[in-house]
């Protein structure tokens, strides 16, 4: 593609390729995003769900980023859906309102190789799945993801080498800056990359005991220990996401008695371009507690098994994927008093 030279107040601007802007003296700005729509049909509506079938926008996202050399930034804006297996399907507008139309926005400084400092609205270090549907292998997130934080407001320091990485940060936990009495949280991660295309990381988030609930999390004082592993062998990718959650007793946090939950999710995908097949299996357990808190999303004291299979086809920027998910629980969790739920879904759109 021919370079298109322009003049601006910041110097010369060149469009080197469709999704890359070269700004002098700022540097290269990477542009990416997605525009997708989806539909999901449930045979049994989840609790608080008002529709068996949901038609909506999956993602209208644009991402702008610059590598920290030594200064950089990431800015992600738009509308985004966050459907979860077994849980009521919210409107995309309702999901977007949780973290605003600009869910990620942070500055980054890298004073030396391997060291970076990030500050702003940051994606969580907890978990395997992304907050944005188009970045996931599935249309719906899993119930393990449903227990995890999504976005934090804070500061994070990362040091990485070829063999390991360490992260430490201070943030607002489960987005508690959205409350009138924000509380701090500590986060930490230790990861190993002992082999090519393989990694394992232990992640921890420790919110303040008295963090008040908000629209993104109730309760929001959940202390979490998370183990994530991934490995890629040619076209085959494997992943694991293990999680332990504990919400300590606190009247200010609306936790009358200590509550616990746990879960494990296993992921597999096989990428035979232009086709890709992905699958997830989960087991989740919400421990019964005197306060009656539901940390998983299937009801207090419930436990369940979930399966998700997602075949996808990609042609250039265009993609189409279908999905079949199944949830089997020990106790009723649907509007019509069933212990299981089957969903089918389709998503279509393009990514750039």
Automatic annotation (TrEMBL):
Keyword annotations from UniProtKB, A to Z: Signal
Organism this protein belongs to: Thermocrinis ruber
Signal peptide limits: 1-18
Name recorded for this polypeptide: Porin
Pfam family, one: BBP2
